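quick one, two chains, predict together pls
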Amino acid sequence: MPKLTLNGVSKAYGATLALRRGDLEIAAGEVHVLMGSNGSGKSTLCKIIAGSVRPDGGEILIDGRSVTISGPQSAREQGIGIFYQELSLAANRSVEENICLAMLPVKAAFFVDRPALKARAARYIELFAGVSGDGFAAETLVGNLRADQRQLVEIMKALASEAPILIFDEPTSALDRAQVDRFFDILRGLKRDGRGIIFISHRMDEITAIGDRVTIIRDGETIQTLNLSETDPAAVIRLMVGGAGDMPASQSSAPAVASFSAGAAMTVDRLSGAGFRNVSFEVAKGEILGLGGLHGQGQSAVLRAIFGAGSVTSGEIRIGSDRFDAKSPRDAIRHGCAYVSGDRGRDGVIAGRPIIENVTPIHYLRDRLMIARPSGLKAKAMPALEAMHTKFASLMHPINSLSGGNQQKVIIARWLIDRPDVLLLDDPTKGIDLSAKADLFALIRQLAADGLGILLYSSEDAELLGNANRILVFNGGSVTRELTGEDRTRYNLYQAAYEAA
Amino acid sequence: MTPTTIETRPIRSGGLKLWLERYPFLPALIIVVALLALNGAFSPNSLSYRSLTGLLSTYMALIMLAIAQTYVVSAGDIDLSAGATLSLVNVAIVVLMEKWGGGGAAVIGAMLCGILLGLACGVINGIVVAALRLQAIVATFATSIFFTGVALYVMPVAGTPAPALFWRTYGGRLLGLPFVFYVLAALALLLFLFSRTRLVTQLLAVGDDQQAAYQTGLPVVLVRIKGYALCGLFSALAAFCLTGDTASGDPLVGGKMTLYSVAAVVLGGSALAGGWTTVVGSLLGALTIGLVNSLVFFMGTPSEWQNFVQGLAILLVLMAGVLAGRRVRA
């Protein structure tokens, strides 16, 4: 009998289906690998099992019994432990407190049993003795640790649940070789104990080293489960990509490479900073340059740094032929640089304010407007909004009354009143529906045709393949491969992203 | 969060940083000592045993209130009704003690009721903020108006005296030592015990990162409600000290103390965003406010300038403490 079974589990966030259909079977004593591209629904699936996301439908069985998981606490009680990809640590608590946080040992009903806590935490800290690095101690505050050490604490915390079913959602992304080896030794021990383990990683060598079976997820749907011993990496990647994997990105969709002889819109030369190093490229006027690769390999960091919102330690950026070093986004905007983030809530929307105020802030800044008449602004705002087919009742309605896609259109419209020279798109379609995406990319191509240089990072590979003239594949903060012309295929993109990782 | 975007804080073996992590109230302590020295310089008499006892018994209520505030701030919340809770408990116990005859039994009975009342106020706040998910600042501001309304109903006009037994005990001596010292000792014991509870660790974990705490499986809503209950409890204790000091009931007495309590928490070295707090620091922060006020008085500031100087001094202390702490911890 399988330890854990999922039957047709699904989850939607508003209009976007994060998980269309999840079917999964975890046997006792196996490491079950989940594979799928960015945003295919792996993490959603894990969070549903761990109770931090409530499924819309489907059935979960543990040891053959149908169960309802009402929250993380209830998941824990039913024997599920999880390593969260984004970590679930308290930065100002010590390593040992974090490891035991879910079930603090108690004495006299109220008080933390410190000796018991120390003893329990020490067991898990001991597992990584010798590879946990300098400055790693039971009493150290987690906020003072390096990224890899924090990841180790999250691993220890998951192990401390002693749950029969363990989920590890990208536990190795920041670990070095020795740490990964030690972790795999521990996993092998857990396998022998008969635990059921779900494991997500983007490193093919790790998957073949530790995995028993693999389930492939594509576009929110579990496609197939294979025995890893009977398959090879190429076959797995082909399944992730789907049938059309070997064909080049449909030529009809990608814009022609002809029109950008007009010179470079932006040149980036050996740029290094927090999260990326030694990145060089050139965007021609009229070109859409795609930044690809797995999540968080430095794509966003580069874009934010160019826009003056991140840190640059060395290197040079030029717009046209002028040196361009934005000290702040304000500075960048003045020099004709535009940035649209997928994280609307944080970087774009002025929440609760009317649409017109959300369309015009860049115009205010670039024209140094002090006093403006609404009618005058309206004449400027309307064409920009109409270019995007934005649906709204009136300019005075608050932006929150719009759907996510229409909000993003408003955010993009604000850059259209005064044309920038360079447009930085940082995963601009995150969480918006398909028709809005289509409108958005139609506009982006129009802008490129008008001579803007466009940098596009997208976590959805299809968007890159369909729109970018060239794709730079990022890995660990630097560009590892450039795909041009016929090379722009799904297969190549996956391979470049996964293989070298 | 993806690993490459995590900025890693360099591990500095610097002893100062370690000290501050272990004793986050150190800057506040230095400031208190400096203010004591300044007070002594302007008026040597202000450092006498008598004046210090007086200072302590006057500001014990603010100390308690600052500590009350600290527990909610730990979880990343805030309680703008702490002062109103104090007022409500103040008038309630004065009325009850008067009604029950002002004897020993009446005093103890009234105090028990006061504690229950404080807890009730805290639980109401907790439910409103954590369970109903209203904004803590606005919701507790609203409940503060509500609590003040109840206090005004209990005692429409200020001035009902507390029984002599109550304030004589608070202002008097026990076994040769001022009673307020025993209060301080009891408080220290209480704080020590609370610091070891599971609840405080959970509060801090919730304040650190609420989503992470939820995903860890902590009962976040319940923890926050308990934090507010703790705040209500200490607000009631603050009310006892205040009643002992003023010897009367006043339905509006606590209103202006609320923001002082928030200021004391920050002066003490806690992070208002939660996850990083120190009750000892809050105690020292409340003392800082008291010492600033007495310094302004001893400097002979003309009365129309006292608020001006007071505000300026608190601002200076805040900058000194917070900037120093930030530099070392950053």
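The longest strand of chain A covers residues 16-26.
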